[in-house]
Every structure is written in structure tokens, then in C-alpha cells.
């Protein structure tokens, strides 16, 4: 019988640096801090690390990290594509490597100086694989512009409003207000602040956009068997998936049959197929939120509601603590830190350990997703 | 690595005045821009099964044929969606902002959607239309604008401004 991924591996360590608009250390240094903290959290010496996984737009490579932390012989290394779409794929790749015996101790990480470094969209020639000749001359320059195009169409087709987008921004901000590590700790958001904030790309305003953050995070993946001997309670990788739909075009996904059913739909189909659970069994969700509009699209894609119902799903406090689906409980990319979604993975682990600053009582399952709009990935974690 | 775009960006300091980003065609896209330079809107189409496709690519995703043709479009379409970017933007665009960028669905081939600016008159800039006039579904027709010497891009005029 083929080796199965389901519950074969677990995340046993997490680490992170402080998050700030500006940190003095280099990305490489931040990466090493986060990785060593994650290994310490797991109680595993760096010399036992034999696998690394990262995702594109990562400036530090595994050669640098491995020699800095004192890793031994490395037998598996992988880099997932599409920037923010690759966050969960790092854990998935490590889980596959460990489950199939290619490696024993895997480290995934993300280090970014997004706050103090150059904004990636400034370099319009080195963007994500968007077909630049078809979009850039017209001034469709930034990811915010590209997603705003889908957001307006979504609002038009389904009657979604700015209040729905505000529901997403508010849920993330409220959780960040509970999280001392979050950049937006003790900085509440009101509906008036949201509605009167400046536009970035209409229909998206300032608070529909993620933060720009310096910081790094890491996690450690080992076999379920080994996880039992680690320092912390294991968080099992129950199911994992990547998704690049037919005729998809990256962030400017305007040219397929249905641009509003993005990669989340593809990743979700395969995530649930390989799982014992369904959307109804998810206790808490960490959904990639570079832009608020990605959340209703993802709620539909991952099956929490039907097509066109994602905006309405956010009503009545559904995404708040105690709601139908508590969302981004550390604050997410909108209000904790924008570290290309890796903070969502670590928060998923904290929820299932019972150590979140906005703990969902008894949370036993957590969905974590990577960037929607680009080829993506997702994890279903369970305690 | 060949650059996808040329033109002035704020991270490539040079002597040129800030200007729009100009399309730098790849092999597959080049015919589109050559036809545009002659005032023609043409879309890559499979010469075997006649399926139009965009963006251009080497072979047909439906029948895998490498035989391609460039089918002339009527130039009619409808606004599928649009955005109004505000700063921070590259210098040329920051001066124009807020301007519009629309996705236009072609009447002749509804799944072919082109990104472009809606302008008030041929050659007018991307901020020349009152945003209140823009709406999803509004009929538009193509016009062509010379972004720079020898570089022409399709733009769109509202049928009922």
C-alpha cells in the first residue's frame, strides 16, 4: 500500500522573530533566529535537521541557513512557487519527504523585510508571473489593483458590499488587539475609520490591504511517531493540497471560464478528498488575507458556504471569536504581520496546542490557507 | 534574463522622464502589438479548431495544434470590471491618479477579456473619463493610442458616455 500523508507527520516546533515595520537584522539573520527558536520549541538539535522547504521570493536559501544553524547532511530541499501561494506547500513538501523516508527533521521558514525593504511591486519587471505586457502599460501595477478588479466584479455579481469587506478587516483587527505580538495590538479599528480611509485601488481602501512587515517565522515537521517524544503537543498534518486550476493566469486571473473561482477551489477539492473531515468540522480557520476580498472568495472555495455566499457568511460576527468560523485569530496579514502567510501556519499550531491569545475553546481542527488568486496551497491541521 | 517591460520604473534610475510602462512583447505576443500598431484588434486563434485564446501561447489548449491564426475582432466589448488606482504608484501613474483600468470582455469572444483604459476620446489619457460614467456591463468600442513612438495600445471608448 502506498504511503499516505494523512496524520503521518506533525508540526512539533514553531518560532518567530518580533514583527515590526523595521527590524535592523538582515533577512538571513531573522531566518536563523526563527528557525533556531522553532527547533528549541521542538526540543530537537539543529544538527538533526535534514530537510528544508521555502517558497519563492525568499531571499535566503537553504545553503545559507543550513550552514548558519549547524544542520547536518541535508537530504531534501524544496521551494514552492508563487510567493504567498506557497506558504502551506512548504509544510506539505516536508510532510511528504518525512512520510516517505527522504528525511527525518524538516524545517520550513519565511523571512521578509517587507516593511523596511523595497516594496516588491516597485520592480514591475520582476513581479510574480503576471503577463506584464497585457496589464502594466495601462497602470494595473500592484497586486492590490489586480485583486481589486476581481473584488469589484464579485461585488457586482453577488451584492457584496464594503461592509462585508469591513467585517473581514474588523475580525482580523479584533484578534490582533488581543495579541501582544501583533503590529496592530492595542490599535482598534472602527467602521468609521474603515469607511473614511484613503483608497488604494477602488473598491479597495487602506484597511483592505495587508500590512508591510519585517519578520521571520519557522516550523519543524517530523514523523507522527517521533512527534510523541517531542517537547510540545504534536499538531498533525491531516491533509494538504496545492492548486493550480486549468487555464489559470496568476494574480490577473481574468481569462479563464470563471475568474471568481480561483485556486482555492482546486486546492479545496483535493484537500477534502484526502481528509476524514469536511468544512463543517473546522473549528478555526487561518485564511490568507493579503486583501480582505480574498476571504469571501476563499470561504466559498473551501466549501464553508455556496457560490456567491462568501460575503453574506461574514455577517453577524461569524468570523469573530464565538462565531461560526473564527478567523485569523492572531490578526492575520491584515493586522498581525504580513509575512507572506507563514504567521497563519504558526497561529494554526498555537490554536491546536491551546495557546493562542484568542483561543477557540477546544479547537481540534484548523484550516490554514495560502494566497488565493495565485497558485495556492492549504493545510488541514488537527490536534 | 530579458526584461518583460521596458520604460521608466522608480527602481531603475536613468535619464528618461517618467513615462508609461511600455509593452515589451514576447514571441507569442508580438503579433498582437504589430496588429495594434496598424489599428487592428486581433486575437490569436487556433487554425485547426478555431478556438480563440488569450494571452497568446505556442499551442492550442483544446486540440494541441501549433497552427495559429490571428482573427480580427469587431472591437466591440463590455466592461467586465474596473478599478481606480490611487498612490503610491510609479511616478507616471501617480500623476494621472485616480485613473481607470478596466477589463473588457469582447463581444466576438466573451472569454477573451482585455485589460485597458477607458478614455474620453481617441488619444485621451486614462483619467479623462468621469469615474461616475463607468459601470460593469457598459458597452465600449476599441480605439488605439500611441503610448510612445512606435508603441500603440488598444484603449476603449464608452458607446454611451
TrEMBL record, chain A:
SUPFAM superfamilies: Thiolase-like. Transmembrane segments: none annotated. Residues 257-375 form the Thiolase C-terminal domain. CDD domains: SCP-x_thiolase. It comes from the Bacteria. It holds the Pfam family Thiolase_C_1. GO terms for molecular function: acyltransferase activity, transferring groups other than amino-acyl groups. NCBIfam families: PRK07855.1. This is Lipid-transfer protein. It comes from Streptomyces albireticuli. The lineage of its organism: Bacteria, Bacillati, Actinomycetota, Actinomycetes, Kitasatosporales.
TrEMBL record, chain B:
InterPro entries: ChsH2_C, ChsH2_Znr, NA-bd_OB-fold, Thioester_dehydratase-like. Residues 70-145 form the ChsH2 C-terminal OB-fold domain. It comes from the Bacteria. Residues 33-67 form the ChsH2 rubredoxin-like zinc ribbon domain. Pfam families: OB_ChsH2_C (PF01796), zf-ChsH2 (PF12172). This is OB-fold domain-containing protein. SUPFAM superfamilies: Nucleic acid-binding proteins. Residues 1-25 are annotated as: Disordered. Residues 1-11 have a biased composition (Polar residues).
